[in-house]
């Protein structure tokens, strides 16, 4: 068998393996989720913007939260697997914090 053919074959196997490691493994890994019990949360501020007042208490149902943050790589794998489109991508603008929240055309998780 020709050495070049063997090298190309090995290269394809390695490329497929690397692709699986980079994109499928976050989806296959079981996330560590913390159970957050139901309760009440205090929302708002006495000193914030007009739409942040008044301080109020709201009920919050129990939920689970990942122990670690979601990386862009993790989110990219999720998007590739599910074809999910964020609200910012649908409307072609997103909220960006500078000294305050601003609507920025074209801003989304891929283009913060």
From TrEMBL:
This is Sulfatase-modifying factor enzyme-like domain-containing protein. Residues 30-110 form the Sulfatase-modifying factor enzyme-like domain. GO terms for molecular function: formylglycine-generating oxidase activity. Pfam families: FGE-sulfatase. InterPro entries: CTDL_fold (IPR016187), Sulfatase_Mod_Factor_Kinase (IPR051043), SUMF_dom (IPR005532), SUMF_sf (IPR042095).
């Amino acid at each position: 068998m020709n050495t070049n053919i063997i090298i190309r074959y090995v290269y394809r196997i390695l490329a497929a393996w690397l692709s699986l490691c980079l994109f499928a493994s976050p989806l296959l890994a079981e996330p560590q989720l913390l159970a957050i019990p139901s309760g009440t949360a205090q929302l708002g501020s006495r000193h914030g913007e007009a739409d942040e007042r008044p301080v109020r208490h709201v009920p919050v149902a129990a939920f689970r939260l990942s122990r670690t943050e979601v990386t862009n790589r993790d989110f990219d794998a999720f998007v590739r697997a599910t074809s999910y489109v964020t609200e910012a991508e649908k409307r072609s603008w997103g909220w960006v914090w500078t000294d305050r929240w601003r609507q920025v055309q074209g801003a989304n998780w891929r283009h913060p």
